[in-house]
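Allow me, if you will, to draw on your knowledge of protein folds for a short while. Thank you for your consideration; the sequence and its C-alpha cells are set out here:
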Amino acid sequence: MAPMSSKRKGPTVNSQQRDVKRKKVEENVESLNQRVLDFNPGENEVTSFNDLPLSHPTTSGLEASHFKNLTDIQQKAVPLALKGSDLLGAAKTGSGKTLAFLVPVLENLYRRRWTELDGLGALILSPTRELAIQIFEVLRKIGRYHTFSAGLVIGGKSLQEERERLGRMNILVCTPGRMLQHMDQTAAFEIDNLQMLVLDEADRILDMGFQSTVDAIVEHLPKERQTLLFSATQTKKVSDLARLSLRDPEYVSVHEAAASATPSTLQQNYIVTPLPEKVNTLWSFIRSNLKSKILVFLSSGKQVRYVYESFRHMQPGIPLLHLHGRQKQTARLDITARFSATSNSCLFATDVVARGLDFPAVDWVIQLDCPEDADTYIHRVGRTARYERDGRAVLFLDPTEEEGMLKRLEHKKVAVEKINVRQKKQQSIQSQLQNMCFKDPELKYLGQKAFISYVKSIHLQKDKEVFKLDQLPLEEYSASLGLPGAPRVKFVKGDDAKNVKNALRRQQISSSEDEGENDKEDQNMPKPKSAVVKTKYDRMFERKNQDILSEHYTKLIDDGTDKIQKPPNTTDGDDDAADFLSIKRRIEALPSPPQQPTTTSSLDPPDPTPKKTKRPKPPKFDSNRARRLLTTKEYALKHGPKAHKLVFDDQGDAHEVYEFADEKDFLRKGDVVKQREEFVGKEGRRLEEVDRGVDRGVEKGKRRERREKRRRREREEMDGAEEGGEVRVELVPFEGEEEGGGGDEVVVEGRREYDEERAERKRKRKRSGDGEPLGSNDKLEDLEALASGLLG
C-alpha cells in the first residue's frame, strides 16, 4: 500500500485570504490619505469629529468616550495637524487642548501603518507628573480600538521595570527629567524613527526650569519630525522656536480676538488684605463655605504644609488635603484622586497643580499668595469654570501689590472686580495658632520654615514693581502665624548689615586705642552701648523663644554680667565676684617648626628611602559632633596622607607609577624633541588600537542591522498567522486596574498571546501527522494509531 501524501493544502487558502486582507487594509489607508489631502476646513463646516477624515478605530474610540462636538481650538488645530504641519496652539484653559494633539498622533501613526516593530513614533512631554497621568488616561480612552502600544514614563517609579518594557513602545507620555534619564542610560531605547513631538504646556516646559533638560532631549531627536506646542499662554520667542527646529509653524489662537483670556463663565474677584490678615481671612472664608469644593494656591510647599497642619488641628468642618512637589508619587496620586472624587473639600497646593489638571466641579479657586505673573494667574483660575461650567476665583492682594498686579492682568485682558470682606464674619485665629505653636514644637518649626520660604519667594521674584519686600510688615506677619518672633532671614538686612557690623568693630578698635593713652581711671569706665559687639553666645541667650529654662538662664547671665562690670570704687576683695559665671577660654597656638628652604631640581631622582612624616595631631573639640567628624571618610580624604601607587620591576624593586628618569641617562638616548615625538606616536597608535576594538559607531550599526533582521523575521512570522489571529497591542491600564496589572506604567500586551497561539498550532500539526517530525512528548496511543493508519 502506498504511503499517505504529506502535502499541505491549508496554507494556499490561508495565504490567499491574507493577501486579500492585506490589500483591503492598504486600500483603506490609501483612501484615508486621499481624504486628508482633499480635506479643506475653509470650505467645509467642521463642527463634529464625524466631519473630519478620521480612521474607524479613532472614530469608535471617540464615540465610546462620548466625544462628539469639536471645540474652537480643535476645529482649527486638528485639520492642520492631520496634514503634517507644525503647530503653536493657544487656547483658554478647559477648552479641549488634549484632544487637539492626541487625535492627530493616533491618526498619523495609523496612516503610516505603525507597528510595535517600528519603535517609538510619538513623544508627548508634560511639565508635571499629574498632567502626564491625565493625558495618558485620555489616550487610553480614545485609543482603545487601535493596535498601538503606549506607555507612561514619569519619576517616582521603578527605573528598571521601565527599561525592560520601553523598547517596543509606539507612544510615550512622559516628564522631561525621566525621559532624558532613559535616553542617556537605557541602551535598548531608540528614537531614530520618531515622527511626532508634542509639548503640552509648552511655555512652562521651555521655561528656565526645564531649559537644559529640553535642549538635551531635542539633541537626541531626529530633525525630520512634526512638532506640536499647546498651552493656554503660548510662547512666541524666536529663540524657543529655533531650539525646537520648527518648520514654518502655524500659529492657532482662540482667545486673542476674545474679550478676555479666561472663560466667560468664570467670575473673578480680588480683595485687598494686609499680609498679617491673610490667614485669618482664609480661615473665615473656609468656615463660610463648608459645602463647597475649594482649591487654595500658596507660593511654597512649606507654607502648604504649615497651613494644612494648623487648620487640621483646628478642625474647620470640611475635609482638608494638601499637595506639593516634595511628596512621594503614591501620595500625590492618592490625593489627586481623592480631591477629584469628593464633592466638598479644601485642597492646599502649590503651582504643581496649576497647569492642565482637570478637577471636576471646583467651586472656588483662592490665591492666598500673589502669582508671579499674569500667565500664572490665568493657569491657576483655569482649574475652575472648565468646559463652560460656572466657577469663581478670588485673589488675595497686599496693598503694596494691588496697583502693579492689576496692570499686569489688564495687559493680558483679564478683568477682575474688587470685593470687600464682611467684618461680621471675620474671625481671628492668631491666639489659637500661638497656643498650638507653644504646645507643639514641631508645628512651631513648620511655621518658622513657612515664614522663611514666603520671604525668600518674595525676594526671588523678578517683578520688583509688584513684590516689594522692604514694605511688607514681616514682624506682624510672623505673629499672625503664631510665632513668638520673626525668624531671622539673612538677606532681609541688605548690604547695610555688613557695613554696620564693621563700623561697630572699627569704633571698638579706635576706642581701645584711645584707652591706652588715657588714665587708669578712664579705663575702668563702662564702654558705650553702641561700641559693644555681640558674640554668638550673647545672641543665643537673648532669644525670645527659649525653652522653659530661658528665664532662669537670662537671670543668671544678667546677674553675672552685673557682677563682672565692677564700678570704679571696687576693692580687691570683690575679685571672686568677677569670676562668677565668667567663661575663660584660652587657645594656645602650637609653635610651628621652622621651615628650611629646599632647592631641588625637577630632574633629580626621588629618594628611595621613604621619609617618616608625623601625622598632625587632630585638634581638640568641645562637642561630640565635631569629634565624630574626625572619623568620617571626607575628613580622612581631605586631611589624611596622600595615597601612592607603586609598580615593581623585574628585580622586585618598587617604583612610582610616574617618576622622573635620570637626566644624564635621558640625554644619552638622543634628542629631546625626537624622543617626545616617538613617545606621542607610540601612545597614539596604542589608543587607535584600543578605539578600533570598541568603536561605538560600528557597534551601534551592527546592533541596528541585527535588530532590523529580527524585525523583518518577526513581521514575516506575524504575516504567516492564520486568519482571525490578528495581533493587537492594546493601550494598557494604569496602576494595575485591569487583568493582571501590577501597577506598571509601561506594558506591552498581545505578543504573549500570539506566541501561545503559534505554539498551540505547532502542537496540533505534530499530533495530526501532516509531515512534521514526531515529538518526544507524544502519547503512546497516538503513535500506535498513526502506525496502524500507515500500515493499512
In short: The longest helix spans residues 10-38. The mean pLDDT is 78. The two ends are 7 Å apart (CA to CA). Residues 750-768+777-792 form one domain.
